[in-house]
Amino acid sequence: MSVATTNDTMPAPAASPSAKKARRTPAPQSSFAPWKDPNATPIVRFENVTKRFGSFVAVNNISLDIYEREFFALLGPSGCGKTTLLRMLAGFEKPTEGRIIVNGKDVTDLMPYERDAVNMMFQSYALFPHMSVERNIGFGLRQEGMPAADIDARVDEAMGMLELKQFAKRKPHQLSGGQQQRVALARAIAKKPRIMLLDEPLGALDKRLRQTAQFELMHIQESTGTTFIIVTHDQEEAMTVSSRIAVMDHGELVQVSTPGEIYETPQSQYVASFIGDVNILECRVSNVLPDGQLELNWVDGTGKFVAQPPPSGATKDQQVWLALRPEKVRIGLDRPATDVNAIPGKVENIGYLGSISHYHVAVGNDESVTALRANASLAVDNTINWENDVWLDWPADAGVVLIR
Amino acid sequence: MRRWIVIGIPYFWLLVLFLIPFLIVFKISLSDTASAMPPYTPVLDFANLRAFFAGLDFENYGFIFSDPLYTNAYWASLKIAFISTLLTLIIAYPVAYGMARAPKQWQPLLVMFVILPFWTSFLIRVYAWIGILKKEGLLNLFLSNFGIDPLTIHNTVYAVYIGIVYSYLPFMILPLYASLEKLNPALLEAAQDLGSPPWKTFWQVTFPLSIPGVMAGCFLVFIPAMGEFVIPDLLGGSDTLMIGKTLWSEFFSNRDWPLASAVAVILLFMLVIPIVLFQRNQQNQREAAR
Predict the structure, then answer these.
(1) pTM higher than 0.90 for the full model?
(2) A28 cis-preceded (ω within 30 degrees of 0)
């Protein structure tokens, strides 16, 4: 990787403050993208993995690489196969076809207790009700036959990290939900696995607690350098915590990208509408311009749009969908200078949220487009009202052309 | 007022059906035997209470503790009850475990199979075992096909073990099943994930969490097995000494009601300890479930 090599070759006299500064840039966070490096070896590799339960296909021929120190999210609605994928990695389910490679070793046929590199935090926490908090956290270490003094030290460290020391002697049923969640995390982290699996780890917490816990998870992931793989159906959670997201549907990977790419350049209507709000306009390609841009004819109304082509390209007369995020659609009373990427409409509804307002605008043949506007000043531009005739417009690079 | 009725009914029930009969038995145990109707003296005579109380003494208890026949019978009963409880537990645990792990839709059917024997009279089922275990019985008939010499099981203590284990098995299986069925399968997965192979997981997670069921089952078998009369009488023959049988022969063969009553009172006090333990176990379980 280019960033790493530059740093390594740089002469670094430790005393010089300027050299120190040079070492710090660029920030390691922004440069962390091992999935773009063809030489990087993944820590987890799914090779054409299929899992069938009877005639039901839970996971359909998935190949996926996950790299060390990643915070990887498997996102999708319930029943999409994300939990099955995670359970196959933990060893609770055997793939019907395909192989799973962890740390360069084929673990497909290993039992869960033989997979040292992987530990799981369960959705129900699965704390042992007959053991105290410290006995729960030390359980995994006792299985390894570790000396008692070392176990105590590791348990103490894990309890310190998750602020559980004052609960050491309590039984799980004497703890609150948030405390139980932290014990479950501490129990898995005490094993110091290379890879942590988290199955809807925050699903049982209320919203405020969940946000705190998300940052706690990220903090632990960074400070321990563990690879985290999280299963969630909460798109906001996936966006917040992860380095990459795999969006799943019906046992298949729909898109694997960074949160930013998933949001800005979704590859299908499914991904676009699963993450965030989106306006989707059905179109037909009327022309491919010489510079590669597409000229689109709106199907449900009169309008001519210009947009960047999808990575796979598009041909004339092809059916496509233009995805527009509400915050990228400008709303105004005056007709814009150009007819391209501009459509007229009537305000149906206004959702005032304080800092921003949602405008639901009726356009074309019974379609609706949402535009978002920041309420930046008190008086100006506050003139758009219900039933107003308005114009919506957007720049050519705002929309994403989807072919499915 | 209504509260007192609600609370009073069970206490009245206990008073009439437990405490008064017990006091009568206790009083008889302090009396002396007599060839009369009823076969003991003194009979309660309100006109002469002083003479009535003067006629009571602990002589029968002294006799029981001095005669090794009785102490041996108590010890033998304790031993047989203890060993049969252990055997029942060993047989019932895998059965209950299998039931709890069976597919959910089968479980009611499996529970019904366990209770099914209760539809036939207990006595008939014990008689059936005579047919199986006796010298020319089904078991020996079956074994003779393989050239094995007939076994002598009927009229030995082994037949008593078989009879007790068979009869009380459902009382062990059902509480075990109830506690195993509640076990969250995610706990077993968590243990495996943390590096514990299945056999260790059983001893570290499954068994400790099933202890309330184990305790309940053991008490439900041990307490009635201790005073068992029918099984040792029909299957154990004259070799087997159990306190229930001794009690029966004192009452009906010797017609020594005072001595038999003393035997019964001592048996009751021996069983009070496990009964109290059992009730405490049930109470703990109820509190843990809260």
Answers:
(1) no
(2) no
